[in-house]
């Protein structure tokens, strides 16, 4: 009997890529369609569009993670096949595999992450395809401005710090030059406004406002994902400016089928000025469990800028240990547990993000982070798909200002959990959950009694503590209301409670935030996204180095209000066989910005005083255009934004902890597969000048200066190249050469503080220059 249910009849139940991977209940008719031969006719072009057509023509549901097919192409498919056969042919050579979901549909998963040394083309074992961190994600608000950086890109460019990770990402800037002082800015907003996680564990709080709060080792990263701007209810606590997700590698990301264990040694040399070594061992403990361990060591001397001048206070040593156990507890139950131990030490200026002059005193400093994360996931049917994350992190920073108060230390302990479930109803899904986070921040004088007596406001109080407790509940829905239209809507409730333990004071706030968005596919190649999202953030724990206060003074405004955010975005995305592009507009406002401004106001305000300072607004435009040939791809990016606080420009000195100003940015990325074993590429980044920025409004307000001053941020153009070579006959060896700042340009990144040296009494205030030309040679060998 001929099957009466054609692909068109089941298309309403098919999950297209445009729904971003939602699975559901399949009718018996559709299950039958998946094993019946269908005459497929799918043209060459983007893989995501081809999967959409295959689902429609075959009448089955197909679930997939969006990032696994982004940028992939297919030569098309024609002829009579079962859906399983058609998927197998369509996915050949893509490192993807289609697996039955047990309900008549299919789940497409990444078979293996690009290996550091690829020894064979054999498919990877099935255990690689599922893990506790492989969570399908639908994002509508801000979709066109989301960014994914994969392990392959990090390896090819020999990424060594945050600046390297985001070097080719126009919407992200990294200032500070020195690794310990680097700060990430997204659309001009400092990373203090982002929800930053490593395997789901938040990297929270500020130890010292002159250093960065995000310390990451790129060697361990499987992927880095940025969601710019306030987004969906699942984004987490305090995602005012967006969410930044780091995912670490597992053993199964490096093992081939049938390979019980392996070891990778890697040595890198930097001409400007240092070296790096790492050893990673990984293996299967059983059919269901695997273990990865990694040791990384970096030693850098002072770098040189583009003029060959020494950048004093940029030398540092870094050491890292990482251990990760992952596997299956039982069928459809997955668990991973990881521990990361990271240390960095060196001698820096008292304020590491400002330049140290020749002959200036450098002060010993140590930083560290210890993170333990457990991720559990189950897949028990359409209604129960749980994801649970539990974590504990300790971050520490100690500085020895031996010319004055001596050693001073700070630490932040963070622990909490996130429990969420995804329920699927046909072509719709609902994600709901609760989360909790506790931050305990402390600082103390570590010198002798005389130093404490000389420098503490109250010698009887030499240690200071704050504790923040956050609770959140959220629900986010994605509804495929018709074949081309996806609607997203969600709501979130947050409760913030801050206790200044040392001084028996505090503040609390509670509030709701919502979002709504849509994605409409005009054709298989052209889609529109639009959305509006809110975010809510109460006062969190303060900067650890500024917890101390003078007797009789206060550091919290009596009527402190929480921050409330509105973010609106509209975007278009086009993906054809060779041509691709996207354009997006956004506008975001933060009402009742909470900020500690420089200087002290009238008593009882202390020098550190958190208050609502007004309204912050940023609006911008991003454009991306790309084209692919058989062995070459090229992409051009352009981004521009304007940020203002109460209608005036912002800059990273007075608006520290909030935002910074940057000129318009152009990026050109070109990748070329020169041979089957040689990949090469280059990137050119041009940042336009931003001159006559009005600054020192706060200084004028409190009487430090008579008039507003102006600073400039000059333009610069920086080029990077790389070549990645796997010698034939030496399939265990990989050679990589990368050159950053190819033309040895002297420049200060716009994400750093501008140069204030021309302003009387502000001499010495400026960001550190970036490194000049840096030739990086890396050898990796798999044992």
UniProtKB/TrEMBL annotation:
Motif residue range(s): TonB C-terminal box: 766-783
CDD domains named in the record: ligand_gated_channel
Main location: membrane
UniProt cross-references to InterPro entries, sorted A to Z: Beta-barrel_TonB (IPR000531), Beta-barrel_TonB_sf (IPR036942), Plug_dom (IPR012910), Plug_dom_sf (IPR037066), Secretin/TonB_short_N (IPR011662), TonB-dep_rcpt-like (IPR039426), TonB_rcpt_CS (IPR010917)
Domain of life per record: Bacteria
Lipid metabolism as UniProt keyword: no
Subcellular location: Cell outer membrane
Keyword line: Cell outer membrane, Ion transport, Iron, Iron transport, Membrane, Signal, TonB box, Transmembrane, Transmembrane beta strand, Transport
Gene Ontology terms: cellular component: cell outer membrane
Membrane topology summary: Multi-pass membrane protein
Domain Secretin/TonB short N-terminal: 60-111
Family membership noted in the UniProt record: Belongs to the TonB-dependent receptor family.
Protein name: Ligand-gated channel
Lineage of producing organism: Bacteria, Pseudomonadati, Pseudomonadota, Alphaproteobacteria, Caulobacterales
């Amino acid at each position: 009997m001929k099957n009466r249910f054609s692909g068109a009849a089941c298309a309403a139940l098919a999950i297209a890529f445009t729904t971003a991977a939602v699975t559901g209940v399949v009718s018996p008719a559709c299950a039958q369609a998946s094993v019946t031969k269908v005459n497929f006719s799918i043209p060459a072009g983007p893989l995501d569009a081809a999967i959409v057509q295959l689902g429609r023509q075959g009448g089955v549901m197909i679930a997939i993670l969006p990032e696994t097919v982004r940028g992939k192409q297919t030569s098309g498919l024609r002829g009579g096949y079962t859906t399983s056969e058609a998927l197998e042919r369509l996915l050949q050579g893509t490192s993807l595999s289609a697996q039955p979901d047990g309900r008549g549909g299919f789940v497409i998963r990444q078979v293996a992450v690009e290996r550091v040394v690829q020894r064979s083309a054999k498919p990877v074992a099935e255990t690689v395809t599922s893990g506790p961190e492989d969570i399908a994600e639908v994002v509508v608000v801000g979709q066109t401005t989301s960014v994914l950086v994969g392990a392959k890109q990090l390896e090819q460019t020999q990424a060594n710090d945050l600046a390297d990770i985001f070097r080719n990402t126009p919407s992200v800037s990294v200032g500070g030059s020195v690794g310990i002082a680097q700060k990430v800015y997204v659309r001009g907003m400092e990373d203090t406004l982002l929800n930053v996680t490593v395997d789901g564990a938040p990297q929270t709080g500020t130890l010292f406002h002159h250093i960065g709060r995000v310390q990451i080792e790129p060697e361990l990263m499987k992927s880095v994902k940025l969601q710019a701007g306030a987004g969906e209810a699942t984004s987490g606590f305090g995602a005012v400016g967006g969410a930044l997700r780091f995912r670490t590698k597992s053993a199964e990301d490096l093992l081939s089928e049938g390979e019980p264990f392996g070891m990778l040694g890697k040595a890198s040399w930097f001409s400007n000025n240092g070296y790096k070594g790492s050893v990673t061992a990984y293996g299967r403990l059983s059919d269901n469990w695997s273990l990865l361990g990694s040791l990384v060591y970096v030693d850098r001397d002072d770098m040189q800028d583009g003029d060959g001048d020494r950048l004093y206070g940029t030398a540092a040593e870094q050491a890292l240990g990482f251990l990760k156990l992952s596997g299956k507890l039982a069928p459809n139950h997955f668990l991973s547990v990881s521990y990361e131990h990271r240390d960095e030490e060196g001698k820096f200026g008292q304020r590491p993000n400002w330049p140290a002059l020749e002959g200036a005193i450098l002060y010993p400093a140590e930083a560290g982070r210890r993170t333990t994360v457990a991720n559990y996931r189950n897949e028990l049917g359409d209604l129960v798909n749980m994801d649970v994350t539990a974590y504990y992190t300790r971050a520490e920073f100690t500085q020895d200002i031996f010319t004055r108060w001596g050693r001073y230390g700070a630490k932040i302990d963070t622990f909490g959990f996130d429990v969420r479930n995804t329920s699927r109803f046909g072509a719709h899904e609902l994600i709901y959950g609760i989360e909790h986070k506790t931050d305990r921040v402390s600082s103390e004088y570590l010198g002798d009694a005389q130093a404490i007596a000389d420098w503490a406001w109250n010698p009887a109080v030499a240690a200071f503590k704050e504790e923040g407790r956050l609770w959140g509940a959220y629900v986010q829905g994605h509804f495929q209301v018709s074949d081309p239209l996806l609607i997203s809507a969600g709501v979130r409730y947050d409760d913030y409670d801050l206790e200044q333990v040392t001084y028996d004071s505090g503040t609390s706030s509670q509030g709701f935030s919502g979002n709504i968005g849509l994605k409409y596919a005009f054709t298989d190649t052209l889609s529109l996204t639009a959305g509006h999202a809110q975010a809510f953030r109460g006062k969190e724990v303060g900067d650890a180095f500024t917890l101390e206060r003078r007797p009789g003074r206060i550091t919290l405004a009596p009527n402190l209000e929480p921050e409330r955010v509105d973010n609106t975005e509209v975007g278009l995305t086009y993906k054809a066989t060779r041509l691709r592009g996207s354009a997006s507009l956004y506008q975001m406002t933060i009402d009742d910005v909470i900020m500690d401004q420089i200087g002290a106001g009238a008593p009882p305000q202390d020098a550190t005083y958190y208050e609502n300072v007004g309204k912050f607004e940023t609006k911008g435009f991003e454009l991306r255009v790309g084209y692919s040939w058989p062995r070459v791809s090229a992409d051009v990016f352009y981004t521009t934004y304007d940020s203002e606080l109460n209608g005036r420009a912002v800059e990273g000195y007075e608006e520290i902890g909030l935002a910074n100003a940057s000129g318009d940015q152009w990026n050109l990325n070109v990748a070329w597969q020169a041979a089957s074993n040689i990949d090469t590429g280059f990137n050119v980044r041009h940042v336009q000048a931003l001159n006559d920025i009005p600054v020192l409004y706060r200084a004028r307000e409190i009487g430090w200066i008579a008039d507003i001053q102006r600073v400039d941020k000059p333009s610069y153009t920086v080029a990077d190249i790389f070549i990645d070579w796997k010698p034939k006959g030496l399939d265990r060896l990989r050679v990589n050469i990368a050159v950053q700042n190819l033309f040895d340009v002297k420049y200060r990144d716009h994400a750093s503080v501008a140069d204030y040296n021309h302003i009387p009494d502000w001499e010495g205030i400026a960001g550190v220059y970036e490194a000049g030309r840096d030739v990086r040679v890396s050898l990796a060998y798999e044992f």
